[in-house]
Amino acid sequence: MHLKSLELSGFKSFAKKADLRFTSAITGIVGPNGSGKSNCAEAFRFVLGEQSIKSLRGKRGEDMIWNGGGDSSSATGRSNRASVKVTFDNSQKLFPTIDFDEVSLERVVHRDNSNEYLLNGSQVRLRDIVELLAGAHIGATGHHIISQGEADRILSASIRERREMIEDALGLKVYQWKKLESLRKLERTDENMKQVESLRREIAPHIRFLKKQVEKVEKAEELRKELIVLYKEYFASEELYINTEKQKTSEGIAGPKKELAELDLRLEQAKKILTDSKNKDTKSDKLISLEEKLKICRSEKDTITRELGRLEGELRANKRSIEKEQARIKDEELRMVRLKDVEEVVQVIEGMDAITDVKKLWSEIIGALRGFIAKHRSSVDSALISEAEKDIASLSGERGRYEAKLKDATEKEAKFVREYEELKSTIEKEKDTNREAEKDVFKIIARQNEVRHILETLTAAINVLAREEENFKHELGEAGVIVGREATEYSHGAIESRSMQEERRKKIEKNKIRLEDAGGSGGSEVMKEYRETEERDAFLGKELEDLEKAKQELVKMIADLDARIDYEFKSGILKINTEFQKFFTLMFGGGKAELTVVREARRKRKSDGEDLSDVLSSEDLRDAESGSSDAETEDGPEGIEVNVSLPRKKVKGLMMLSGGERALTSIALLFAVSQVNPPPFIILDETDAALDEANSKKYGDMIENLSKHSQLILITHNRETMARAGVLYGVTMGSDGASKLLSIAFEEAVAVAK
User: Fold this and answer.
1) Are residues 514 and 223 in contact, defined by beta-carbon separation less than 8 angstroms?
2) Is 703 within 8 Å of 187 (Cβ atoms)?
3) Which of 335, 492, 493, 610 could form a disulfide with 237 if both were Cys (CB 3.0 to 4.6 A apart)?
């Protein structure tokens, strides 16, 4: 026996604590009408989680609490709470999830209508109680708690309601709950899929936009990588060239400088000889004077040459700037404009929709587009080119002045040289003691002229090389800014022709302009946003796949549950029919009784252009089956039909049964249902009230048979039923309106019953 006790305190008419112990397979609860004995059955419904106060004969939770009664001084005052506690023997694991040999469930209701649920003294949720009881085939309003009015309900119910009762009795609720939960999950899954698909549709245009931006960034990255390669080749070759040329000029200028210094010393010595000579004459003085003039003239010429070199370098730099700008302008077809600028011109054109004159509208559109193109087309007369050309003009003018000075200095030098040569020729003809010294002077000066020319050439080359080295350093810095430090990390190169290097430099300038137009900066942010957006889309795609997989699993689970419910239901009907026939035969001494699964028929009718359906009555159903009805029908959901045939009578069908026969039939059916999937206990609340003495004995025999599978709690007035109980509890009500319990031994119960 699983049911051990029921304890009531302040519940309805039980003002004080009342304790019922269930130590027998059949326990009877008896008492006069109005004593409160049916409150015991309602106490079971209450503690097992019944939420319908109306089914407990109340309007609100407060109606479950003892409200006081009577006018005597001994009357019990009203309670502030009501509690019912039921205790089960769990030694055979009626509740497999509870690791205790005894399980108590308690429900408490307070005056403020709040409820508490306790499991072995610990507060839990109603859901926990319901799930625990469902696992043991127990429920608050299940088939195992049957009142007098509910006994006939299984016969008077519709075929659909009868099916629900049978499903409940067969323990199919747990599968239906699972199916309902799966359907809810399926609905949530469909909703989540719609949300995910909506999110993917929202980000799809942004992904397409970002993809185009990424393509631009990738193009810029390709240009950047190409520039890096070009820069490395250019810098390696340029550095090798500059270093090689610097070494060559350094080595080449050292010898002439040393020789010129030696020539200067020798010249001074020769001059000293001529100056100190006793035979000094005016020709020697003139020779020395000419030499000094030549020295001064050549010094001026050197200064002018250096200035011309500087001017030439600046002119080349400005011309290079112009070449860069012109290369950029020539590359106009590759120019890119900002999306925002395009959107602006589109908005301007869209704003012309008010112009109705087609020619004028077309003219305005063409004008807007030409203005847009002109705005974004580079002009040859750019500020950079204009400034560079001004500098070139200024430098060219200055160069012209220095070239004129150089020409004058050269002519003056040539004049001094001619005079010098003429004097030299005259002196050579003279035969005097200073002849050798004068020859030395002439030789030294001639060599000095040669050496100075060599030095002038080397100095000009050094100046050009210094300018090229300055440009090289500038390009290094610019490369680091444009394409990154990687471009400046190059290895040693090979010596190449200057034309090849110049071609490479022009290509670098062209690619720099293309990289700038392609958007050389901000690419990392675009790539990052594109990756993040793609990852988000991939995540949503994976989530959609998971949801689709979950949906298919739920659909399969629902189909499996439907199949399981259908199988369990139909196999259960077969078992119920076997027991129903046994109990029916016991009740009526023969006959035939069975449940059949039928499909509900619906009548179609039209109203306001819409098809409506009504459930057909039994007569309509029979007419429809025989083909005698004019109603147009369609199949509805499956239900349960009860078919009975009494022995030795022509009575067939529930509508032909008398009240007593209906009572016996309903009891037989309820007992049959209970036998298929026996609950731990069954409460019968005056289900035998309509039976006569003969049928009461049959009812008692069925009770004894039923008690072999389930504990029975019988609330009854019937003496035959009382006689079958092992323990009887009597319920009385005093003048204060409070119910009290009296336990009666079996032998006394038999005596009282007789």
Assistant:
1) yes
2) no
3) 493
Whole-angstrom distance, CA of residue 572 vs CA of residue 578: 10
CA distance 146 to 696: 17
- The answer to whether the beta carbons of residues 144 and 138 sit under 8 Å apart is yes
Average pLDDT over the chain reads: 81
Confidence of residue 292 (pLDDT cuts 50, 70, 90): confident
pLDDT digits (tens, 9 = 90+) for 30-42: 988 888 888 998 8
Residue 334's pLDDT band, with cuts at 50, 70 and 90, is: low
Look at residue 601 and tell me whether its pLDDT is greater than 70.
no
Q: Are 642 and 669 in contact (CB under 8 A)?
A: yes
3-state secondary structure of 434: coil
Strands in 739-744's sheet, in edge-to-edge order, are 145-147, 681-685, 711-715, 26-30, 727-733, 739-744
DSSP 3-state percent helix, strand, coil across the chain (nearest 5): 65, 15, 20
Evaluate if residue 629 carries a pLDDT over 50: no
β 681-685/711-715 pair status: parallel
What is the DSSP annotation of 116-142? EEEETTEEE-HHHHHHHHHHTT--TTS
What is the rounded distance in angstroms from the CA atom of residue 269 to the CA atom of residue 275?
10
* Contact between 327 and 510 (Cβ < 8 Å): yes
Within 13 Å and on the Cβ side, how many CA atoms surround 121? Answer: 2
Could you give the C-alpha distances from 111 to 59, 70, 106, in angstroms and in order?
13, 21, 17
Q: Are 136 and 95 in contact (CB under 8 A)?
A: yes
Q: Flag whether pLDDT at 13 surpasses 60.
A: yes
CB 80 within 8 A of CB 110: yes
| CB within 8 Å of 564: residues ≥ 6 apart | 175
| Domain map (residue ranges) of the chain | 1-144+679-754
CA distance 219 to 334: 12
Fold of 1-144+679-754: Rossmann fold (3.40.50)
Exposure of 58 by Cβ count < 10 A (0-12 exposed, 13-18 middle, 19+ buried)?
Answer: middle
Distance, in Å, from the CA atom of 485 to the CA atom of 671, rounded to the nearest integer, reads 93
698 close to 587: Cβ distance less than 8 angstroms: yes
Q: Which pLDDT tens digit goes with each residue over 153-166?
A: 788 888 888 888 88
- At residue 226, the pLDDT reads 87
Report the distance separating Cα 478 and Cα 235, nearest Å. Answer: 12
For tokens 């059916």, name the residue.
669
Amino acid in position 410: T
Please determine, for residue 110, whether its predicted confidence score (pLDDT) is greater than 90: yes
